[in-house]
Amino acid sequence: MSVQYTPVIWNRNKIFYDAVLLIAVALYLYIFIRVGPMFEDVTKPIDGAILRMRAFGSCAFLMLTVILCIGPLARLDRRFLPLLYNRRHFGVMTAGIAAVHANYVLTWYFNFSPTDRYVALLNSNTNYGQLLGFPFEALGIAALIILFVLAATSHDFWLSFLGAPIWKALHMSIYAAYTFVVLHVALGALQGPADPIFTSVVAASVVLVCGLHFATGRMEARRERGEATAKASLQEAGWVVAGELEEIDDDCAKVVTLTEDERVAIFKYDGKLSAITNACAHQNGPLGEGKVLWGCITCPWHGYQYNLADGRAPEPFTEKISTYRLKLIGSTVLLDPNPQPPGTYVEPVEIGEAA
């Protein structure tokens, strides 16, 4: 955690996360290169460079698939939240693996071209007007450029320099990169000799990503429709109904949507209730998915902390977020939709207290 936009301090959890990720990648590459050929039904062994090219390419594709699954999984089941903590490390490593794949392509297919290998890559196939035979290399290049941009701008400096809305919009291009990668594989590797295992893996990956996002979207839509109905039918002097007390687990939050751009996290902890904005001041991380420790909420993305009563980061840090007033009538939680200025203390509501 940092007062300014400087690197987040390394800790045991971050080191363990990256170590597991590196081991998993190394193990996959080893199995693909050393064990995989034993199951190939070919008369001539596959060249080593081609095998490594396929290994790194398929690894990058699977890593990108996992990255896009982490978000919806964490919203569907809180047990997946730890995977959110260092997701950008996952993305940077994916860009590196994809770059190795591209390097093998250039050095194997175009290294001995009489023209510059980059020129040869872009001019070897220019049939953009047809589906079969489409220059899938261009799709891979587009995806690689996006991954490089996202990796380069993952540092906090770029969030500060570009501003949160632009930074977030830029990093949403990960979905465009995934689309390009899927098309790159479908129009390239899948057009070669039949490989039912690889074809099944690609199809299952696409279905998994789309299915998880669809399920999460339906869950969010149902929740927001229910909240909209409650707000329309039950209001008291400008307060809105946030839900029932039993809907909030201990040391957890219920996230309430006020507008398209504003969500509030209502926390139950130590026998009381407090409400803060759901957006972390660092990178708009979902505070409602974080952990409550000693009266502070810890952002699940990068570990920034805020006191739940006043929205202030523990000293010596100076970050502040908005707080909200709550009221408890019976077991119904009411929320004042007007945010207090960032860092404003709001008396927590004692559970069992009725107005």
Summarize this structure briefly:
The chain has 355 residues and is of the alpha+beta class.
Give a topology summary.
Layout: H1 12-35, H2 48-76, H3 87-109, H4 117-123, H5 136-152, H6 156-162, H7 164-171, H8 174-187, H9 196-233, E1 235-236, E2 239-244, E3 252-257, E4 263-269, E5 272-277, E6 291-293, E7 296-298, E8 305-307, E9 323-324, E10 326-329, E11 332-335, E12 349-350
Antiparallel strand pairs: 1-2, 2-11, 3-4, 4-5, 5-9, 5-12, 6-7, 7-8, 10-11
Word description of this protein:
This protein has 355 residues and is an alpha+beta fold. The chain has two domains: 12-223, no CATH class; 232-354, 3-layer Sandwich (Rieske Iron-sulfur Protein), CATH 2.102.10.10. The protein is built from nine helices and twelve strands. It has helices at 12-35, 48-76, 87-109, 117-123, 136-152, 156-162, 164-171, 174-187, 196-233, and strands at residues 235-236, 239-244, 252-257, 263-269, 272-277, 291-293, 296-298, 305-307, 323-324, 326-329, 332-335, 349-350. Strands 3, 4, 5, 9 and 12 form a five-stranded antiparallel sheet that branches. Strands 1-2-11-10 form a four-stranded antiparallel sheet. The chain has a three-stranded antiparallel sheet with strand order 6-7-8, with no helix packed on it. Strand 3 and strand 4 (263-269) form a beta hairpin. The chain is elongated, with a radius of gyration of 25 Å.
